[in-house]
Each structure stands twice: as structure tokens, then as C-alpha cells.
Request: fold
Amino acid sequence: MSSTAVRADCAADPGGTLTFHLTTPVAAAATLLLRRRGAAGAGPGGTVRIPLSGFGPGRSRAVLPASARLAEGRWDAYVEEPGAERARSVEPGLRDLRALVDRSPDTGAPGITARVPYPTADGRLALRCWVRAPHAEAGALVAGPDGMTVEGVLYGITAEEGAAVQARLPGDPARVHTVPLTLADGATGAFAFTLPYAPPAAGPVPETQLWQLWLVPAAGGERVRISRILDDVWSRHKSFVYPGVPAAPGVLATPCYTADNDLCLRLEPAPASG
Reply:
């Protein structure tokens, strides 16, 4: 651990409030600083300061309420102390995120927010924040031999006649494949769809392609990105791995998530045999 770093445990409650317990002594009147990665300096929306209060010898606490406004992105944690030339980085301690597992916000709300504390690759504490209005939350996913079947819940908007899911290849507007959306009886906002692999794989696949999946709630409506963010997983692209299957001659298809937890279909040339 760095001698200038502060160590912090964190815990989440079912409503989304996060409490940071600093286990390293800090100066009186210090604050917990959250700085959004990529934000220019201390511009509007780029920093959030939370007062620290003592709750034991050499320990202090900061509370980030669920109602606090944070832009979508990755936020790094620091401690600012009066008179110090620079903020001290925060290293992750224990993370009790059990309350975030299988969250079920009100589907009638205009949108949702999700915040997950996580350790960065270089050993610092950060916060992954999503702000989606509306939002299509992916749930159970079955990677079949011919296609992927996905269940989910729609937040902040109601699916209507003509609702569908689109698989879109970024950078090529002509590459779009559409499948109908099925709405679950008696379950508000619940939906399902099956995307066959063959239609997207029928076009040229000279290199790896990530097809984005979008839900269109009504014919001609504004599309909504399908993601999975309502739990304690800050990045799914390496932890949720599905098998690849042949989708066309020389092409493998694999459901996958991006580092930002957006659902995709990955197409790639199959390895040469022999």
C-alpha cells in the first residue's frame, strides 16, 4: 500500500446509498473527493465532494446518498485535506455490495441510476456509475446453437405494438437486423426476444465485429440500449463468458457484454482448422 494512500471499506444499502468507511486516519475537516475520469479539471459535473465525519478512533465516514447527482462514467476516489498540496488516493478495502444484487427498481420511474464501487487495475478505489432514462435491463440469457434468447425488464417506458430488438453494426448503418419483442403477461415491463445468429453472419465478417443490441419500444420509436447494470458487477466482459458457435461458414457467433455492461453479439472469423 502507498504511504500516502487512504484505505476505505464501502457498503451499499438496497436503495443505492453508498457508505465509505475510511480505516486510515485523515485530517479534521477532510472531504472525500470523487472525480469523474475524463472530465476536464474541476469543471461542472466533474467532481463531487462529500464531508467526512469521525465515527471511531482513527476512522471516518462519508455517505453518498442515492439522490446525489453523478454523471455516467467512472469516478476515482480521493481524500482532500486542508492545507495539503494534493489529494490522497483511496485504496479499496472490504466491499459489501450484497444489497445491489438483483435490484428491482420501480419500472414506472422515468429512469434508473446504478453505482458500483470497484478496485481499478492499479489498486485504487473507483465508482462505476450509470444513468439511463429509459433503460432496458438484460436478465437471463441462453446462448443456443442457432441464436441467443434474452429475458429482461424495461424501465421508464412501455413497450407497444411493433416493439422490436435491433442488432446494429456500428459504423455501417445498412447492417441492421430486427427481431420482434415478446411481452410477458402479467409482468410490468418484462420482455423477451430471440436473435438468430445467421442473419448478421450472412454479411462479410473479415474481422471481429461487435453488434450492439437495441430495444425499440414501438414502431418508429427511439431505441434504447440493452445492458445489465442492476447488480454488483462493474464490468461483465471478462466475467460473463459464453460459448462461441458456428453461425455461417467460417464465422463464429458469441453473445457478450462490453466493459460497460452493454449487451452485444460478437462475430469473428473462425480459426483455421488443422
The domain at 6-132 is CATH 2.60.40 (Immunoglobulin-like). The chain has a mean pLDDT of 91. The chain has two domains: 6-132, 135-269. Residues 198-201 form the longest helix (4 residues).
